[in-house]
DNA sequence: GCAGGATGGCAACCATTTTAGATGTAGCGA
DNA sequence: TCGCTACATCTAAAATGGTTGCCATCCTGC
C-alpha cells in the first residue's frame, strides 16, 4: 500500500500538503492540489485508517447492540441502522449480547478504544449505572429503554397510543368484553405502564368497564398463549376479544384455538403486538400493532450522527408512532 | 485513557516490558508480570487497537457480506458468524449488499485499508474477477458460490444429498409420481446441477422414471407457487408429490391448495427447501430441507480464522449436510 | 573469570494529523 | 525605493500509542 509519503514524493511536495489536500483544507494552491490528486490516483492511494484513528480522527464506525440478529424485530432494526449508516459513509459493527452482560460491556469498550464513534443499544442488559460511564468516550443512544435521568437520547415506540389504537380497533369491531395481557399490572414506568394507560384510556373513552378477571399478567411465550386460550375458553364469563401484547402469545392462542375448534375471530378475537413475520403466516392472519423497527433504527442512527457532528441532540425521548395492521384475527 | 506509558510508570518498568506482558511474551519475570497486571487493572488500561493496528497487527475484526440481514437465512448466518468470531475475540462488521455491486466493493475495501482481517461473502454480487484482487489484502471465504478456480475456500451446502434425501423421503411415503422444480434443467454447474443430480439419483435408485412434464423450471416466488398448484391440479396425468426447491414456492402452492380445497398432503404432497420460518407457520406445516445457516456461518468463520493464523486452508469446497425436516405437508 | 541464558530497556518504526515556523509575495506608508 | 506587516503557502518535526530488533545487564554454574 502506498503511503502519504509516497504520494508526497511523487507530487514533489511535503506530506503535510498532501494531508491538507486529503482533508480538504485551505492553504493549498490549485496547482499543487491537482498535482497531489493526480499522484493519489496514480498510486491508488487510500489513507490508512489506523493511522488517522491513532491521530484522533473519527473511525466512521458505529456499533449496534441487539439481543440477537435472528429476532426479526432486531434484524430489521440492525438492517436499518446499517443502511442509514452506510448512506452517511459509516460502517456498522454488531454485537449480539444474547443476555450476556459481560459481552455487552466488552463491546462497549470499542467506544473506549476508539474503534467505534458511537453506540446504539437496542436492548440494555446491564444496569444503566454500569453503562453510563461509557458515555464519556462517545455518544450512546438507547432504544426502548427507560433510564433514570435522560442523560442520553432514547428512541421509543409510542406504546400508549399503539395500545390505545389496538383496543379502540377492537371496540370498533363491536367488542365490549375485552381481555388484556400485560407484563406487570401496576407498572410504575416503562413499556407496561404506557400500554396499560393506553388500554385504560381506550376503555374509559368507550365507557367500558375493566373486568379484573380478564387481565392476564406475566404471559410471554407461544406456550403461554396456548394455555391462555384454554383458560379463557373455560371461563364461565369470558371476553370476546383478547389484546395479547405479543405476537408470540397471540400465535399460541390461535394455534390452540385451531386445535380446539375455537373459531377466530368469531368465538374469540385475538390481537397481537409487534407484527412479527409469524403474524402474516398464521391462519387466521393476525391483527397486530406494528413496531416500526426500521424507523427506529433509522432514527437512532440519525441521532447518533447528529451527536457525533454537532455534539448535541434532543434528550426528550423520541417517540415513534406504532401502526395497527388489521388482518383476519379480529 | 491510560496509555502503555502510564502503566509502565505505575509499575516502575519500561513500556517494552508492559507490551511483553500484554502480548504474553517470554522474558518477563513472574514478579514483574504481576506488577504490570496490577497496574493495568488499577488504571483500567486497554491497549489502543489503532496503535497496534498501525504497527501491523491484526485488527481482530472480520467482515461479513450478506444481501440483507432481514432474510432469516442470512440472519442466522450472520448471527453464527458474530458468535463464533466473538468467542475467538473477534468483532464483526456487517455489510448488506442488497444487490449493490458498488457497496460490496466498497465494503471489501476494509480489507485493503486494514480495517478488517478477513471477509466472509455470503452472497456474491460482483463477478469473481472483480473480487479476486481483494484477496491479496486478506483472506476471503465464500458461501454458496461457485467460482472458476478454487483460489479461496468455499463453504457450501450439500445440495445433492439434501435433494436426494428429500426425494427419497417422498418415495418412502409411497409416492412414485414425483414432480420437481428446478432453476435450470441442464445446469452445467452450481446449485441446480447438484440438486438435479440428487433428484436423478434418488429416482434411479428407486427404479422410478422421470416424467418431463412434471419438471417445472424457473419458478421462484410464492406467486409462482400459486400458479403452479393450479397448473398441476389441472393436469390429466399428474404427480402425487412435488419437490419445490424453495419454501416460498411451496408456501404459495399450499396457500392456493387451501384456497381451492385441495388437500395437502392427501391430494398432493408438497415439499419445500430452506426451512424458512414460514415453513413452520403455514398450515399444513411444510416438510422441507434445512440449510444449516448456523453451521455455515460457524464453518466460514473457523476457516477465516484458520487462514488468518496458519495462512492455509482446504480449498476443496466444504460441504455441509442439509437435514430433512419432516412436517405435515408430505 | 567467563559462557550463556534470562530479563528488561532504548530507540526506531508504523501512517497520519497538527503545531510551529519558514518562505515568499503583495500591499502600503514613509 | 525601502522596510514593514499581513497573508498565503508550504515544510519539518512532534505527537499519537503501541511493537520489536537490538543491545545491556544480571545471574547462575562451571
Topology record:
Two copies of one chain form a homodimer.
Chain A: H1 4-11, H2 15-22, H3 30-43, H4 49-54, E1 61-66, H5 72-87, E2 91-96, H6 101-112, E3 118-121, H7 128-131, E4 140-143, E5 154-157, H8 159-172, E6 178-182, H9 190-205, E7 215-217, H10 222-233, E8 241-243, H11 247-260, E9 269-271, H12 277-281, E10 288-290, H13 293-310, E11 318-320, E12 323-325
Parallel strand pairs in A: 1-2, 1-3, 3-4, 4-5, 5-11, 6-7, 6-8, 8-9
Antiparallel strand pairs in A: 10-12
The structure holds a DNA duplex (30 and 30 nucleotides).
How big is the Rg of chain A? 26 Å
Q: What is the arithmetic mean of pLDDT of chain A?
A: 90
Which descriptor suits the 3D outline of chain A? elongated
Task: Let me know the largest β-sheet of chain A.
Answer: 6 strands, parallel
| Total strand segments of chain A | 12
Give the fraction of residues assigned to helices of chain A.
40-55%
Structural class of chain A: alpha/beta
Relevant CATH superfamily of the largest domain in chain A: Response regulator
- Structurally, how many domains make up the residues of chain A? 3
